[in-house]
Amino acid sequence: MAFASNSRAWGICDITGFRYRLRDMKKTWNGLLVGPDQWSPKEPQLSPVPTPVDSQALRDPRPDPSSDGNENPVFQVFSGFGDGIIGGVLQTTPMNSTLGKVTVTTT
User: Fold this and answer.
1) Can you point out the beta strands (E) in 1-107?
2) Which residues share a beta bridge with 10?
3) CA 36, CA 41: separation in Å to the nearest integer?
4) Please, is 35 exposed, middle or buried when counting C-beta atoms within 10 Å of its C-beta (0-12, 13-18, 19+)?
5) Were both Cys, which of 32, 35, 65, 90 would link to 14 (CB 3.0–4.6 Å)?
6) Coil, strand or helix: which one is 85?
7) CA–CA distance from 36 to each of 4, 20, 43, 55 (Å)?
8) Taking a C-beta distance cutoff of 8 angstroms, is the pair 51, 32 a contact?
């Protein structure tokens, strides 16, 4: 298809409807043909930079062999008895239980 190449060709602005020289008109980022006073570049907010994905896990993790896991507690829970910190010192309590009679049969 052949297009007009005359320097005196006119075009109509898609925004205002005003007539401009076709050689002076510009195409916007969304495909509108507009006059030079209506043209503006694409706003950066319309094409945001994708955020990097956070890693979810380590590949082949290994525990620190010199660590016992108690040097940097994330939180502590205080109680009203004993040493005050739950989990600080393990205290055992004797416990008895009975289940009744259990019968195992094989078929």
Assistant:
1) 10-12, 19-21, 26-27, 33-34
2) 21
3) 12
4) buried
5) 32
6) strand
7) 20, 9, 17, 47
8) no
Give the tens place of pLDDT for each residue, 16-34: 999 999 989 999 999 999 9
How do residues 44-103 score in pLDDT, each as one tens digit?
A: 888 888 888 877 777 887 776 666 666 655 555 555 555 555 555 555 667 777 778 878
The pair of three-digit structure tokens given for residue 8, joined into one six-digit string: 């005196």
Residue 34 main-chain phi, psi, to 5 deg: -130, 165
Nearest to 30 by CA among 20, 39, 22: 39
Q: Which long-range contacts (CB under 8 A, 24 or more apart) does 60-69 make?
A: none
Dig out the tokens for 54 from the structure: 């956070």
The answer to whether 21 and 9 have CB atoms below 8 angstroms apart is yes
Residue 90, both tokens: 């393990």
Answer whether 64's CB lies under 8 Å from 71's CB: no
